[in-house]
TrEMBL record:
Domain DNA/pantothenate metabolism flavoprotein C-terminal, chain residue ranges per copy: 10-219
GO molecular function: FMN binding; metal ion binding; phosphopantothenate--cysteine ligase activity; phosphopantothenoylcysteine decarboxylase activity
Region (Phosphopantothenate--cysteine ligase): 15-224
Source species taxonomy: Bacteria, Pseudomonadati, Pseudomonadota, Gammaproteobacteria, Alteromonadales
Annotated organism of origin: Lacimicrobium alkaliphilum
Cofactor(s) this protein cannot do without: Mg(2+); FMN
Segments passing through the bilayer: none
EC number: 4.1.1.36, 6.3.2.5
Binding-site residues for CTP, renumbered to this chain: G97, C98, A99, D103, K113, P130, D131, I132, L133, F148, K162, K166
Portion of the parent chain present: 177 to 400 of 400
Protein known as: Coenzyme A biosynthesis bifunctional protein CoaBC
Catalytic reactions on record: (R)-4'-phosphopantothenate + L-cysteine + CTP = N-[(R)-4-phosphopantothenoyl]-L-cysteine + CMP + diphosphate + H(+); N-[(R)-4-phosphopantothenoyl]-L-cysteine + H(+) = (R)-4'-phosphopantetheine + CO2
Cofactor: binding comment: Binds 1 FMN per subunit.
Keywords, in A-Z order: Decarboxylase, Flavoprotein, FMN, Ligase, Lyase, Magnesium, Metal-binding, Multifunctional enzyme
Length: 224
């Protein structure tokens, strides 16, 4: 696991990666989102290109340039990201869900800007978004799937539960309770689980981690 992605370990394979946050519109000028920077997903895209893969990066709004050599599809809402993924999924050998997808969206997007009223309270009703990774895992002939799990407690249990519930081949768990690591940070540490094993990738910069993770994926993909 110490080596960078080996050139050629994913030659001839198509890798799709979701990255960044989603934006869920409330009205024409407002949205719900999160602090995802997209750095981990973009680092994975770069590492996959280095490993020789054809890479489709499905990205929410981020302040990053697409790594040279990958195709970027830009999306805003979870529904748009879901549609972009499903439109191209038949081309994909390996799917990596790295985006911080909003679990819920406003039930309605108002046509006009919501006006402030005399009431001290405003209630927004939210409805569930589609689970992009879950829907990929549930396909009749799914690609090799790697998910991420952002957890603040019981990391291993919750991650393994997601591995099974979403029918994934692998899951990389992130402890987001730690300051300066993970979400919106340059560094990260990951615990990776699959059905018959696990690996710890200790704190490192995201590109270094991405290269190790892509190597692990390439290895498990070939075993499958
Ligand atoms: N994910 C997704 N679509 C969603 C929600 C999550 O594709 N609507 C993906 C994420 O990209 C990540 C994985 O599912 O790879 C796990 O996301 P996470 O937020 O940790 O888990 P959830 O299943 O949403 O459960 P919870 O937020 O309650 O922990
Ligand atoms: Ca979630």
């Amino acid at each position: 696991l110490e080596q960078p992605a080996r050139p050629g370990s994913l030659t001839g394979r198509c890798v799709m990666i979701t990255a960044g946050p989603t934006r869920e519109a409330i009205d024409p000028v407002r949205y719900l989102s999160n602090h995802s920077s997209g750095k981990m997903g973009y680092a994975l895209a770069q590492a996959a290109v280095e490993a020789g893969a054809r890479v489709i990066l499905v990205s929410g709004p981020v302040a990053l340039n697409a790594p040279p050599g990958c195709e970027r599809l830009s999306t805003q809402s979870a529904q748009q990201m879901h549609d972009a993924v499903m439109q191209r999924i038949s081309e994909v050998d390996i799917f990596i869900g790295c985006a911080a997808v909003s679990d819920y969206r406003p039930a309605v997007c108002e046509d006009q800007k919501i006006k402030k009223t005399d009431s001290d309270k405003l209630t927004l009703t939210l409805i569930k978004n589609p689970d992009i990774l879950g829907d990929v895992g549930a396909l009749a002939d799914p690609p090799f799937t790697l998910g991420f799990a952002a957890e603040t407690q019981q990391i291993k249990q919750y991650a393994q539960r997601k591995l099974a519930a979403k029918k994934l081949d692998m899951i990389a768990a992130n402890d987001v309770s730690k300051q300066n690591v993970g979400f919106n940070s340059d560094i990260n540490a990951l615990s990776v689980y699959w059905e018959t094993g696990e690996a710890v990738l200790p704190v490192a910069d995201k590109l270094h981690l991405a290269r190790q993770l892509i190597e692990l994926v390439a290895e498990k993909y070939k075993e499958k």
